[in-house]
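Exam prep: given the inputs below (a chain plus guanosine-5'-diphosphate), describe the expected output before reading on.
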Amino acid sequence: MPATIIVGAQWGDEGKGGVTDRLTANADVVARFAGGDNAGHTVAVDDKVYKLHLVPSGILYDGVACVLGNGTVINPVNMLKEIDELVEQGIDVSPTRLMISTRAHIITPAHIALDRASEKARGEGAIGTTLRGIGPAYLDKTGRQGIRAGLMLDDEEFADTVHNAIEQANQTLTAQGFDPLDAQATAEAYITAAKRLQPYLTETAVYINDQLRDGARVLCEGAQGTMLDIDHGDYPFVTSSSPTAGGALTGLGFGPLYVDRVVGVAKCFATRVGSGPMPTELDGELANRLRGSGERFWDEFGTTTGRPRRCGWLDGVILRYSSQVSGFTELFLTKLDVLSGFEELKIAVAYEVDGQQVSYPPSTIHDLQRAKPVYETLPGWQEDISAVRSPDDLPQAARDYVQRIGEICDTLVGAVSVGPKREQVIPLA
Ligand code: GDP
Ligand code: IMO
Ligand code: MG
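Solution:
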């Protein structure tokens, strides 16, 4: 395995952190290629639960190098907070094993304030962002006025640039009736953070290419999910980056011929946090059962924002599309255990839009909002399956459900998990 790419196949929170953690056992480098601290990856190791936002999940394995690639956006203050929390938990997060690309972009408090202002201005049509400044940071990047992380190596230039960025954002904020930020105090906090992050900064694309050339195994940890992709997702209810397989190549800077495995991660049902279409969304008792009460750490409440996630039946339409746009070599299905106890289970196999059946997600929000799922119904199972480790020990209905998902997506199902812990995995291929 020279390079493996892990991609979320739904609307994020599919369990990518846990899958990354399990595959890190066979990796030398784990790299994030898109997004920032809008991500929340929960990883359970023995009795400990780690919540990662920016630091790649590979950090939990001794000796594995971790990279934040050029495609990511970094909030220096939050980055340091996360590093400090991990160190407190006994994890080695020294610059010898964590590298930040000098080409990654910086999220400033101006971006966060603008994210909040833009959400307010949208009113009813708000995207429901994580308010981490992600959209405005990528907007500055593509508008060619962003701040590359490498600038943190130059104290004075960095201070001036952050200061100016905040002054400029203040004009927009005040024009829209929002309070301006204190440019001086903000810039100071950023300079302190930048100083501490300097040893982590490097040309990560060069590092990764050297590693790949020397035979190292690189695992690319996706954030968000295909339906949040700026090109392939439910635009405009998306994030501002490319969390699909193509994004791994641009977001880290290596060529496609190194990739021999693309693992699509999907939950065995659907969840979404934030606004936007979700054709298979449920409410009431069924949704509550899928979501859980919030007592268990894996219940469906956001890792980053704590918001309850919207829940629904598995959407085979988006899964099939996700498999195509990233070229999944296999699917890793998570949370099969949560489906125990349902009498029957539904999977959307197509949508109906104005009486016409479509087999892929429509491109416009107007059509998406009118898409009605066409369901196939399968029998459920009652048994607790969280201790099952072999496919032969799964109830027949559970095996049939998993097999049907593979058929609908025309993709091999490589494994299913039946709990959040490392060992709660059933390999299928
Ligand atoms: P990510 O953003 O894709 O990494 O996913 P999140 O961490 O936001 O959400 C997935 C949640 O499901 C986490 O709390 C995981 O610990 C948990 N999880 C992952 N796989 C399983 C599984 O097979 N069963 C159960 N019950 N929980 C799981
Ligand atoms: P992980 O990596 C779930 C969603 C937000 C919002 C939209 C845009 O944990 O799967 P943004 O702050 O990125 O501008 O918000 O995208 N979103 C996520 N939803 N999991 C995530 O990350 C997400 N990252 C962003 O809720 O709908
Ligand atoms: Mg998450």
